[in-house]
C-alpha cells in the first residue's frame, strides 16, 4: 500500500466547483488503479503559534482547507498513474482547477501502521 496526501486551500465560494472537480478526479484515479480517495473539508483548524494547516498553504481570507488522501496498491502503480495523467492531453486545464495549485502541499507515504482495515 502507498498513500498520497494533499493539503489544499480552497475558496469557500468554490466549494461546489471543488466537489465536482474532486468527483471527476476520483473517478479517473479509480480507473487508473487507486483503491480509495478521501476528500475532507475543514471542520476545525486551530491556529498554531509557529505553524498550522492555514499557514502551511498560505490560506487567504475566505479559503478553507481540504485534506485529501489517496490509497494505492503500490508506489509503482501510483507513479504509473501520475505519468499517465501527465501525458493525457485531456488533462485538467489549470484555469479550471478550483484552487491555487501553487499553494497545495503534497507528499507520498509508506504506511508503518494501519488499523481498522482488512480486519486488523
Number of domains: 1
Counting DSSP H or I runs of 4 or more residues, the number of helices is: 3
The CATH topology turns out to be Alpha-Beta Plaits
**Overall form:** globular
SS elements, strand count = 4
Give the oligomeric state.
Answer: single chain
In helices, the fraction of residues equals 25-40%
Q: Kindly state the mean pLDDT as a whole number?
A: 91
- CATH class type: Alpha Beta
CATH architecture assignment name: 2-Layer Sandwich
List the secondary-structure elements in sequence, H or E.
Answer: EHEHEHE
Structural class: alpha+beta
| N-to-C CA distance | 15 Å
Specify Rg, calculated over alpha carbons.
Answer: 15 Å
**Uncertain runs with pLDDT below 50, 5 residues or more?**
none
- Read across the widest sheet, the strand sequence of neighbours is 2-3-1-4
Largest sheet geometry: 4 strands, antiparallel
The percentage of residues in β strands lies in: 25-35%
Pfam families: DUF1428 (PF07237)
Protein name: DUF1428 domain-containing protein
InterPro entries: Dimeric_a/b-barrel, DUF1428
Question: Can you give a write-up of this model?
Answer:
With 120 residues, this protein is α+β, with helices and mostly antiparallel strands. It has one domain: Alpha-Beta Plaits, CATH 3.30.70. It is 28% helix and 26% strand. The protein has helices at residues 15-31, 53-56, 75-87; strands spanning 2-11, 36-41, 63-72, 105-109. A 4-stranded antiparallel β-sheet has the order 2-3-1-4. It is globular and about 35 Å long. The mean pLDDT is 91.
Strands, helices and their partners?
Elements: E1 2-11, H1 15-31, E2 36-41, H2 53-56, E3 63-72, H3 75-87, E4 105-109
